[in-house]
Design goal:
CATH architecture: 3-Layer(aba) Sandwich
Number of helices: 14
Distance between the termini: 30 Å
Radius of gyration: 18 Å
Largest sheet: 8 strands, mixed
CATH class: Alpha Beta
Number of strands: 8
CATH superfamily: P-loop containing nucleotide triphosphate hydrolases
Structural class: alpha/beta
CATH topology: Rossmann fold
Strand order of the largest sheet: 3-4-2-5-1-6-7-8
């Protein structure tokens, strides 16, 4: 199958084609139901509208649904890649604003914990496609499963999504603890989702930040908040990104600002500069 990036590459300016680094951002959460996938979808659209070439990897293996959220109908998914029958370039589908999506598929419990061989296959495949995007957004599952910590540790930047619910805070703390203790991660951005006001957002963040700083010696970076917005579930029902369907809504405006903030992030100082290097740190090549 023709690589869906090929036509886009042909019209890219030389400077874009020569860019040596794909910024890898993992979006994760300790608890499900905090709107993580909605954040990824709308952030991807926002970054694309800010001029970035965006590739979204649905890494919620077994329960992936970003394609459903965006009204996309993939013919193939990561299941076909991990089985060896297809390449990532075969399963890429185009979404709103020109983002590209690598769908995971759902109802596949055997993929909830990747084997070493599957990790190597995915590493090799990502090396072939990720450098063609400026931003690789990874949407993980929730919790502290091996898949979640694997994809979080492979990123240059980690965004943890929380909501005001107490269980969201305790589960986010548990996730940060595992990543800090077992994977030596020290930098986390925190986005507060589904809040009624800026005050509620800062109070929610502060609760997590105090605990993390006191018991984990980790300082969290506040990334902002997405407000509760009746337009967002309306967009979900229509299988559209709220930034596309209701661009003037409060949530859409917040996502646009979030995308602008992330688009201006400097190149990371950590030695994580390419997808190949990232995965080789996690899985030594034979």
């Amino acid at each position: 199958m023709k690589d869906r990036f090929s036509e886009q590459e042909a019209v890219m300016p030389p400077a874009a084609q020569e860019s040596p680094c794909t910024k890898v951002i993992t979006v994760t959460s300790g608890k499900g139901g905090v709107g993580k996938t909605n954040v990824v979808a709308n952030l991807g659209v926002g970054l694309a509208r800010a001029g970035k070439r965006v590739l979204v990897l649905d890494a919620d293996l077994g329960l992936g649904n970003i394609d459903v959220l965006l009204g996309l109908v993939p013919r193939y998914t990561l299941e076909h890649v991990l089985s060896g029958s297809h390449h990532l370039s075969d399963i890429i589908i185009e979404g709103p604003a020109g983002i590209h999506v690598l769908p995971a598929g759902s109802g596949l419990p055997r993929l909830t914990s990747l084997t070493d061989l599957q990790q190597l296959i995915l590493q090799s495949e990502l090396e072939n496609v990720a450098d063609r995007a400026e931003v690789l957004l990874i949407d993980t599952g929730a919790g502290v499963s091996p898949n979640v910590t694997y994809f979080a540790s492979a990123a240059q930047e980690i965004i943890v999504i929380i909501s005001p619910e107490p269980t969201s805070l305790t589960d986010a703390y548990a996730l940060i603890k595992v990543l800090c203790r077992d994977h030596r991660e020290r930098r986390f951005h925190v986005l507060v989702n589904m809040v009624k006001s800026q005050r509620e957002a800062t109070q929610t963040f502060r609760k997590l930040d105090v605990a993390a700083e006191r018991f984990l010696n980790v300082s969290l970076e506040y990334l902002g908040f997405i407000p509760l917005d009746d337009y967002l579930p309306m967009a979900v029902v229509e299988q559209k990104a709220v930034t596309e369907r209701f661009p003037c809504s409060p949530a859409a405006r917040a996502f646009v600002q979030l995308a602008k903030t992330i688009a201006e992030w400097p190149e990371p100082q950590l030695p994580k500069s390419t997808v190949q290097f990232l995965w080789q740190q996690l899985i030594p090549m034979p």
